[in-house]
Write a structure and sequence with these properties.
about 25% strand; globular; about 160 residues; alpha+beta
Length: about 160
Amino acid sequence: MQVCKSCCEQTQQHPLSTKRPSATYRAVLAQHGFLIKDSLGAGSYSKVKHAVYTKSPRVSSHCNYPHEVAIKIIDRSIAPKDFQERFLPRELNFWPNLSHPNIVKMLQCFSEENRVYMILEFVERGDALRFIQTNGAVSESTGKIWVYQVSELLTREVKSP
């Protein structure tokens, strides 16, 4: 699966605009071929939804999405300026280039009005936090493996041009 090169293309407004969105996120995603199934999580100014891609590959040849995806939706009207200027651009530049079997892939992102939509690989069994909340603390040996895997990934990404 490839990341679309149009990651975070701006389709309607300036990226730091603070105007409240006029269309619901569901309507915007439906226009892009996504149907929201349920909620996977939420933060202070973002939420993550489980969605299905409803368009056939022939209709949308620029991206070959899997049937199920996760979509992180960031609301710029309530996100702090510091986050929007420093952290969000880093995330949007760094994440699409990550390639590791234990890191969720960003398939594409786009921005419409006052929201950023990050189309992500859907992981049916959830993330590490959900795993620990469900199953309890992991053993020291499992924790060491996880830390090693993350440090290996970060080391590789920092060294690569």
